[in-house]
Amino acid sequence: MKxxxxxxxxxxxxxxxxxAALWLVGIGAIFIPVIMLLMQFAFxxxxxEKNLSDNFWEGYFNESWQSMAxxxxxxxxxxxxxxxxxxxxxxxxxxxxxxxxxxxxxxxISKQKVIFILMFGFLxxxxxxxxxxxxxxxxxxPKISMPPEQLPILFFIKSSLIFFVDSLPIIALQxxxxxxxxxxxxxxxxxxxxxxxxMFAISxxxxxxxxxxxxxxxxxxxxxxxxxxxxxxxxxxxxxFLLITxxxxxxxxxxxxxx
Length: 259
Description:
about 260 residues, mainly alpha
């Protein structure tokens, strides 16, 4: 039977069915909305007034992304990417994987695409949780009503896709690191150090040179506090992603140790 890239992706998806990556995606996506839900019950009068404000959904969306953009989303990408990329290291299964009738390029692409699928799933669940966190108080608490403003679905989709684009360099670089280090803690440690460095670099005028800052820089642009002079960090993000992916692929197919 001819192996296609779709078969390889399906195979990678089967591997993660019982992995911690799915739990990380699920818990990470609802963590901030659950906190905001509890805050609404704790301050019902303030919540009722806030729900009637202009541009409620846009403000609530940006508020939800505050902690997510600065730390939780990048850290989630690092953990999920490291877990998925290193499944074969954990199970000592690289040699078995290379005996399957699929080219190395399929293995590389399918692993990366599964990470994309999980990140899209994360963003979808996160957006759904944002809406539900507003809906539940309105259904339960007598003082709180739903915002009269219609839910701007296109705004949610567009803004989430931009955050995804800005996350691409982190995915690519963490993928490269995880493929090179057999130790899970080592790859996570490097990624964590880069996140911390990016937090300090946000206020630096050349902070845009560090791709781990792009999610945070996009968040600050959304709330009207630009932290960079670069007109389009999203194009820069795509460029970094393509460069890092090319380097990662070249290193992967030319590795001397096959497993």
